[in-house]
Amino acid sequence: MDQLPIRQLKRKVQDLLRGADFDEALAKIHTFPPRRAVNPLFSFLYDKDSRVRWRAVTALGAVTAALADSDTESARVVFRRLMWNLNDESGGIGWGSPEVMGEIVARHPRMRSEYLSILLSYLRPDGNFLEHEGLQQGVLWAVGRIAQADPEAVHSVTGLVEAHLSSKNPGLRGTAAWACGCMADRHAAGRLEAITDDPAGVELWIDQQLCTLTVGEAATQALAKLSGTRFAGSVKSRTD
Predict the structure, then answer these.
(1) Which residues of 96-126 are buried (b: 16+ CB within 10 A; e: fewer)?
(2) d(CA 83, CA 104)
(3) Per-residue pLDDT tens for 17-57?
């Protein structure tokens, strides 16, 4: 695989990201030399298919976390590249960058200790707040993803996440609701209850599945997590 031309490697990665079994695809991607797999995975953060984009987020995060075990400096280079993509001077939008940061930080404690504060600063008005709502939604997802691994790590931003529950943007409301559930943020219960009838739709990447649900369903699911009960509704997982 070391000698495989980059175009062929990119096609292999594309086929894996589009395949039926993502767990199997992820295992195969892990067999590629990590430093060679990074660039193809970056390119698929901009794919037209949202499921492919999200799979690229998970795969790039997983590959970088694995790379951090054997070559920490190369993993740091990947993270700095993600940071650069969010910089106005980069000339781009940085789609997927906050989500990949969240995946890396969730998976690797040492990377978490080094970069968590930078990632959380994108949520802080007195920090490096990202004005673009699509990117801000990515940061909210990243916070929820980190909370799945280490809830205490993101405790300091619970109030900032809760504030998005009253956003005019349904993507922000729904992602914030999901994140509150992951964070076990009981202080958000009242705000979550207020939006349980919200019919606006949102797509969320949950447990490596692209799910379509309403903001109200996301809030109800979060409340179920907070109360320790099982969510009684249904969440549609996209398979197309």
Answers:
(1) bbbbbbbbbbbbbeebbebbbebbbebbeee
(2) 13
(3) 999 999 999 999 999 999 999 999 999 999 999 999 999 99
Rounded to whole angstroms, the Cα distance separating 82 from 203 reads: 23
Q: Which residue has the tokens 């079994």?
A: 21
CA distance 107 to 101: 10
Q: Which helix (H) or strand (E) holds 213?
A: strand 209-214
| Partners of 94 in beta bridges | none
User: Domain limits of the chain?
Assistant: 6-121
Show the tokens assigned to 44. Answer: 């698929």
- Quote the mean pLDDT of the chain: 93
Nearest residue to 130 (alpha-carbon basis) of 172, 166, 162 = 172
Spacing of C-alpha 199 from chain mean position: 23
Token pair 């990665």: residue: 13
* Whole-model pTM over 0.90: yes
pLDDT digits (tens, 9 = 90+) for 136-182: 999 999 999 999 999 999 999 999 999 999 999 999 999 999 999 99
Percentages of the chain per state (helix, strand, coil), in multiples of 5 = 70, 5, 25
Report the distance separating Cα 88 and Cα 81, nearest Å: 13
DSSP sequence for 42-78: HHGGG-SSHHHHHHHHHHHHHHHHHHHHH-HHHHHHH
- Chain centroid, CA 89 distance in Å: 23
Contacts of 155 (CB under 8 A, 6+ apart): 183
Six token digits for residue 52 = 């492919």
